């Protein structure tokens, strides 16, 4: 079924439900604002591109999606592949790859491929999620410690020696702001889980930089002013050679968007005892990524952290996700200059914590208690993600995972009989 969930929820909609959705949407917007900016920076894009993505894709994923409470936007899972595409093909190449990924997701939704998520081995998902978390954490060391390196290699293996050689260039002020934001985020999450701790921590850290005139980079000093309006939509370059060159990247983006959105929707179902529509979700992801690319945005998908925040804040219907996108748009139109003063070490702290949540050390014991084949598959996918390439990691992991699943199937009695002589 590809009918958007919002149509089912409108039959019994009421003003009390609308009030709860508004409050939930406002809470999610306060979480999504710093996350969207930080993810864009870590991806090698301008921070404004992340904000545009959160507005355009976030609106459409909630409007057309198959979950009552799913919230979409740019996520940490895309950082690695987006950074690689931009480094190799430029930002216009990323826009085209995102556009193609949207088309692939539309086809997947039309062919009702949403149920195929069950065949992706859990060990593969865990392996590349942990690997992406490791890469994200490593990518934030420069800003968190204020090393001020002009350029850091994209390759993980090449990046580590460069960071180690710059260890004596640590900026104490930047490190203090990063640590302050990191500790405050953790403390507020434990003290008041429903409180918008992310924006409070990043805001207070940035306020210290401004009031004390600390030598710490901000969004404004590094990237210039944030956009105060949405750009005009524009079609990407659809030349045949570019389409062929960027097709592998588009397939990876589509795969990540599909897998993460459906996993997020499944987690949301467990939290609200609901039932999402996987094919409607894939269709919404397709439309959202096409629209995001037309506005020059990043790839987008359902975001587990923002979806969980939405649920905890009392969201009842997809209207909450729509409200979150509208509030982000109002922030862009009215408060973009203020957002430009956000300190980069504070945003780096936010992403380091995001990476920690992706790595999930508390689950390592349970991972090691699984069959040897699953452990090996997880480690292989993790190593390939960090040291080789996300495309290779996914391809090899899924192929080996399916092979393991077939090997574990119980023997079925064959009806073949030897021919009579």
Verbal overview:
Residues 18-363 form the SLC26A/SulP transporter domain. Pfam families: Sulfate_transp. The chain is mostly helical and 421 residues long. It has one domain (5-356, 371-407). 69% of the residues lie in helices and 1% in strands. The protein has 18 helices and two strands. The protein has a two-stranded antiparallel sheet. Helix 2 (15-42) packs antiparallel against helix 3, helix 4 (79-110) packs across helix 11 and helix 4 (79-110) packs across helix 12. The radius of gyration is 22 Å and the shape is globular. The protein starts with a helix and ends in a 13-residue tail after the last helix. The model has no long low-confidence stretch (mean pLDDT 88).
What low-confidence regions span 5 or more consecutive residues with pLDDT below 50? Answer: none
Derived structural class: mainly alpha
Overall pLDDT metric: 88
Helix content: 55-70%
Radius of gyration: 22 Å
Largest sheet, spatial ordering of strands: 1-2
Instruction: Please give the alpha-carbon distance between the first and last residues.
Output: 54 Å
Query: How many DSSP E strands?
Result: 2
Tell me the major beta sheet.
2 strands, antiparallel
Beta fraction of the residues? Answer: under 5%
What series of H and E elements makes up the topology? HHHEHHHHHHHHHEHHHHHH
Q: What shape does the CA trace take? A: globular
- Count of DSSP H/I helices: 18
The total number of structural domains is 1
């Amino acid at each position: 079924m590809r009918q958007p969930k919002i149509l089912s929820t409108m039959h019994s909609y009421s003003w009390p439900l609308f009030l709860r959705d508004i409050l939930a949407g406002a809470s999610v917007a306060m979480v999504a604002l710093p996350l969207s900016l930080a993810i864009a920076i870590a991806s090698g894009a301008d921070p404004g591109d992340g904000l545009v993505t959160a507005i355009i894709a976030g609106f459409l994923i909630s409007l057309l999606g198959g979950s009552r409470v799913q919230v979409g936007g740019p996520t940490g899972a895309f950082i690695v592949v987006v950074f690689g595409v931009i480094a190799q093909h430029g930002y216009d190449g990323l826009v085209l790859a995102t556009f193609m990924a949207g088309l692939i997701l539309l086809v997947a939704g039309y062919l009702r491929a949403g149920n195929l998520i069950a065949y992706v081995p859990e060990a593969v998902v865990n392996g590349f999620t942990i690997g992406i978390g490791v890469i994200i954490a490593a990518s934030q060391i420069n800003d968190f410690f204020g090393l001020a390196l002009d350029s850091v290699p994209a390759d993980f293996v090449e990046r580590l020696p460069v960071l180690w050689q710059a260890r004596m260039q640590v900026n104490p002020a930047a490190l203090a702001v990063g640590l302050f934001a990191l500790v405050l985020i953790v403390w507020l999450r434990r003290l008041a889980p429903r409180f918008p701790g992310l924006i409070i921590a990043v805001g207070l850290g940035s306020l210290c930089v401004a009031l004390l005139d600390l030598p710490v980079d901000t969004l404004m000093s590094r990237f210039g002013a944030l956009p105060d309006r949405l750009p005009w939509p524009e079609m990407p370059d659809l030349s045949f050679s570019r389409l062929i060159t960027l097709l592998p990247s588009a397939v990876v983006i589509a795969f990540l968007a599909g897998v993460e959105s459906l996993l997020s929707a499944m987690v949301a179902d467990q939290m609200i005892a609901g039932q999402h529509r996987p094919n409607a979700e894939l269709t919404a992801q397709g439309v959202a990524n096409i629209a995001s690319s037309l506005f020059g945005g990043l790839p987008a998908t359902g975001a587990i952290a923002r979806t969980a925040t939405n649920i905890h804040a009392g969201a009842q219907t997809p209207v909450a996700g729509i409200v979150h996108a509208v509030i982000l748009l109002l922030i862009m139109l009215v408060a973009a200059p203020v957002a430009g003063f956000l300190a980069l070490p504070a945003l780096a702290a936010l992403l380091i914590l995001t990476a920690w949540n992706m790595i999930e050390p508390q689950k390592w014991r349970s991972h090691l208690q699984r069959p040897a084949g699953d452990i090996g598959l997880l480690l292989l996918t993790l190593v390939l993600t960090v040291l080789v390439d996300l495309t290779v990691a996914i391809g090899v992991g899924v192929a080996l995972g399916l092979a393991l699943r077939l090997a574990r199937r119980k023997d079925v009695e064959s009806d073949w009989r030897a021919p009579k002589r």
